[in-house]
Fold this sequence. Notes:
By secondary structure, this protein is an alpha/beta fold. It has helices spanning 45-52, 122-144, 162-173, 188-194, 226-234, 258-262, 277-290, 293-298, 308-316; strands spanning 4-13, 16-25, 34-42, 68-76, 86-90, 105-108, 113-115, 154-156, 178-182, 198-201, 217-222, 236-244, 266-269, 300-304, 323-327.
Amino acid sequence: MSDTFRAIQIDKVDDKQTVNLVNLTDADLMDGDVTVNVTHSTVNYKDGLALTAKAPIIRKFPLIPGIDFAGTVALSDNPAYKPGDAVILNGWGVGEGHSGGLAERARVKGDWLVKMPAGMDAAHAMAIGTAGYTSMLCVMALEDQGITPESGEVLVTGAAGGVGSVAIAILSKLGYSVTASTGRTEEEDFLKGLGASSIVNREEFNTPPKPLAKSRWAACIDAVGSTTLANVLSQMNYGGVVAACGLAQGMDLPTSVAPFILRGVKLIGVDSVMCPKPRREQAWARLAKDLDMVKLDALTTHIKLDDVIATGADIIAGKVRGRVVVDIA
């Protein structure tokens, strides 16, 4: 390993956040028992919030952002890993309170890592990233509640984003009929190419929600929250299931108990950050099997570390569709 490595670093000076591409050394890394040579990372919505200071994502300064990375183990004091092992990291507060993946090197706890599943490489792992891994956790949550392709139409909100686009690709490969909700009408061909059977404008879910509306959906994967989620809940079929994993529209939920007590609707929260390791490993194994990598390539854009800061701003501005992989090596 060289003495220095390149990294995006976020700092705070006179109560103002700064973001720069800098050269660091291993002395700048935080505690951990495994050091990884990072080959690929990604820019998620949460990374965009961190890079633009639109939300207080970063809890320590200075810090390397990036909630995901993939690469190979360089040094390990953890018996579960040896140099050369291909690994993935998602969540665990990395890129928030612990330096993360937007750098050529990372040092973390080995317990936070997952070994690369057979048949997958680092570039595809980061094309999936936390967004796609969360999508699979949502699909698994629907399955846990008995939702099958025969149950009926599945709605995906925020469909052109990272979670939504991968969710559509997974669901369609598994045989589900999927409706995609998006405000970007120009993305209709893209979303149908991923497997969506129909498109609805997100404005349909932006009105003040009724306690109950006409039944439409057997299930939903929601990455939006707020008024959108409230409207979706009011439109669920009897016994419908919503897997909620995001808050792009807001953290509030202006709904009533009506969908839950009159239609038996289930609202399942899906957390990817602190998800237990066995569930993570199951999700990654499923992704290697149940996600069409050709479709994944179609929704993925590749950038360099030098492009990360500008891309973070573009994501928050809603200018980015699908997934963004950072080719770090």
